[in-house]
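Two proteins, back to back. First:
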Amino acid sequence: MEQRATLTSNGKGIAMDNHQVLADYRLAQTSRQVSIMGRREVFMGKAKFGIFGDGKEVAQIAMAKFFQKGDFRSGYYRDQTFMFAIGELSVQEFFAQLYAHTDIKAEPSSGGRLMSSHFSTRTLDEHGDWKNLTQIKNSSADISPTAAQMPKLLGLAYASKLYKENPGLRGVEGFSRDGNEVAWGTIGNAATAEGMFYETINAGGVLQVPMIVSVWDDEYGISVPNKYHTTKGNISEVLEGFRREEGKDGYELFVVRGWDYKKLLETYKEAERIARLEHVPVLIHVVDMTQPQGHSTSGSHERYKSKERLAWEAEHDCLLRLRNYILDEGLATEEELAEVDESCKQEVREARDAAWKSFSNAIKSELNEAVSLINEASLNSSQGALLVQLSEDLSKTINPIRKDVISGVRKALLAMRFDPAEVRGNLKAWYEDQQELNAERYNSYLYSESSERHSLVSEVPARYEEDAHTVDGREILQAFFDQLLSRDPRVFAFGEDVGKIGDVNQGFAGLQAKYGELRVTDTGIRECTIIGQGIGAALRGLRPIAEIQYLDYLLYALQILSDDLASLQYRTKGGQKAPLIVRTRGHRLEGVWHSGSPMGMILGSLRGMLVCVPRDMTQAAGMYNTLIKSDDPALIIECLNGYRLKERMPSNIGEITVPLGKPEILREGTDITVVTYGAMCRIVMDAASQLDQMGISLEVIDVQTLLPFDTHHMIKESVQKTSRVIFADEDVEGGGSAFMMQQVIEAQGAFRFLDSDPVTLCAKAHRPAYSSDGDYFSKPSVDDVVEKAYAIMGEVDPVSFPGF
């Protein structure tokens, strides 16, 4: 369905090939029929929800004509016409997503995991390896939250800047043609009120990157008009201060009507030239757009739009305007266009029916198998009548889904619970096979399943010479980052104060001077787009290390980390990856800010990322190296009070790798297992020394990573030996310690080895108070660990360990 115009300059604008104009009309009409019929499918109960791109067709066709191989889109759920136009979405694939078809061949954007109109292209092959991105037209994976597509747009464009200006990347093949690629973003007018939009626009102007932002403006955000969203009710007027001037960088700004076919072509042609050749960001405000069917299938826009507004929208419908243009120019007759209209409707009907048949036949086949097996079991079951009824009910299901089938089978198996195993054996075996298939359909690819996954990275322990120097922890990191930057041109580090001063704790000290500003880079105070900058660059084959200066600043970027980065491999079913490393520092310090350890928040929102919690900088270096050799996104939280603690310098600092998901036993013991991480390791080790003098032996285990967590069940083995356990960290109650307890006691089954209640040791519910006293009375101390362990042993042997 890909459409590309034959466009030439005639001194007055653009000369258009007549056949191409008619082809554009055909495409616009096809897309409109997709919207109309898609909405009907939802109302008929064949799909759960629908959101469509009607009213935006002509502008998207114009934009698509200048989108080249290697370019990237970061858009939102109105862009179906654009995806049709670049040839990366078929009508049948659109309907397959509407129905939630789980076959990746039928629905390549997400394998049925995303609601309709959430688009992506598969930048990875079936093995999880990169395709040649310069040979395909790329779309990053859409997300629903408004304006959340903007931060990674910045990174997609920034990658072009790096590929163009960093000569070390010339030998990196398959990702760029010397930075010639443009990043194309789309956003609705209402979403431009979001802070993520403004932050991205500002950063794009500062960085001067080749991105084109199109604002589809239909004057509403669901029911709320522009006057409530934007000052002056007009985003391009608000952004006039960003317009570039002589000697001052900025944006090129355009305003164009969404129904003005010729002007749209001229505007997008010029915008592409500016962005691609000059590496200047462009914003195109596309006004006078309409939304003929309203926002979505959730309601009708007649509820909140006046009759006058609805009449205006009907008159300014871009499809009607394009039709009138064709008639006025004599390019076709009414009869010929009527034939095109009918042809488009028939094409969409056929694609819709084919998508439904493919989707429903697979489920009906499973239903028939289940019905047959239930009937077979009913012949010998004590619950034969009930099974026959279950079978009949299942057979009569209208438009069945897998939930209906599996739920029916589970009810049947439960009904047969008192029958001999051989009676229910065939049905149970079928159910277990389906569980495996459904796990692949609905639960796979939370993390990488490629040959570059972290579990395949070999462990390389730190080695030390006899005369190894003892240095500050920050010097360990600086030595590692130096070697990393020297050997891998894809790596670059960026964030607030990372560049000139080498970060606030000197981990990159002197490295900007050595490797240049493109490799070690300062940014503004903009955590959300620091992460977006990293996501976009990682999507294009680079290996960014994005620094969030302090752990509590992660809150500014949490939504992007959670909704975009952490879910990327899952929501594309292994079709895309962005192996971004997010570096931050936290845990123990003194004060309400920079001292928190909100691990529960992180664990609950960042599944799909690895979460590393090194106790010192040597372990941190090994984790960074493991991550660079693998392809999952990750968060590393360094100990904020560890940069000036002394460590021995390994002789193989650039080669160390730490296995992720493998705890380390820091101290062997026999009485109590203490499970902890990060800065608490030092606290617990100090307490263990004091307890040893009292006759209490602690086994201290550093989990090292929270995601993944103890994949070899080493902690259970320790609990089996000690029969008692404490989970200690600096998070609030119910946070990180509760997660560790659930993993060990429930998931690993260590409860069966306990002789005493499992115990947690956490920080107070409030943030830490300022000063050393505030820290002592807010977070677990050595004294707290000693008393907690002593109390446990006091219950076991009150004579040897009397109360005090």
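And the second protein:
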Amino acid sequence: MKHPRRELADVFRTHPDDFLAGWNHLLSGQQRRALKDIRDCRTAARGGHLQQCDRCGHRVILYHSCRNRHCPQCQASARARWLAQRQTELLPVPYFQGVFTLPQPIGRWALQNAQPVYNILFRAASPTLLETAADPRLLGASIGFLAVLHTWGQNLHLHPHLHCVVPGGGISPDGLRWIACPKSSFFLPVRVLSRRFRKKFLRQLTQAFRKGTLGLSGELRPLAEPAAFRGLCEQAAQIEWVVHVKPPFGGPQRVLKYLARYTHRVAISNHRLRSLENGHVIFEWKDYAHRGRIKTMTLDAVEFLRRFLLPVCLPEGSASASTVFSPLEFVSTSWRWAALCSPSCTRLPQQVLTAVPVSIHPTPRLVPCGNEAG
């Protein structure tokens, strides 16, 4: 007998009391709201409305969605709008995908300092790309890009990293020419990016520490001592920070579709859940350390909920608002891609000047309710 596919809401509905008994005192208001919204989504608890076919009289009760951005059942239309808007901004040039990852000793600070750590992540990665691309020995151009923050890994562990979608070229210093990358397979040297990113991040983290804006408690309490903090930064400065820059497999459209799955949802979707039995959740995850092999993981339901809700606590209004999407003031240059079509850019490639966005919205189609006789 084939068992029905489990949903994330099933975990929220069957184990909320056990979870709250151990973690309620540590939850933020956003986390409590997400817990309640996902549990009640599309149930009688949120109310609903009745639809009736005007031909056969068939009735269907439709319960209201919670519209919480952390709910796997919601935000599909918002995600589609985001994707459509981003696709209109793509240029007909080669693109690259960049990833900036925080090492584990530094990334764990985000559990207690989400806003300052993620703000620093954006403010370190952004000038790293802009300054490196502006170097006349490398590209010598002013670039723009989109950055999206991921705070978790496939196994729901904390794993802060920044995905960037970058066109393979930029505007010349005089604003009159498009400077393309010499090779479609190479954008900027990874080692230069990695070390510049590391230096900028540690400098800003040290400034935040000296200003007293970092909260250090529990396992991080010993690092509140200046000598211990300085030692941590010295150790972090000796290791290579992971930065990847490579042409995206499948083109920029595929990367945007991948990122769109995270701009309005977090952590895990329903299709990855395998079972919920005897207080344990089994789900699929992709092990990128072993060539993306699909594996299964079993977690206690309470631990599963704890990991799922970790990214929900990000403060609104910070650089990481909505968890994964960074505001343009942190990741863009002072100009918009629309400026590429201005009369002053007369020496840009003709395909760039004449690029016209194409709508991807399908035409709505009306169909019978499915219960009409005949």
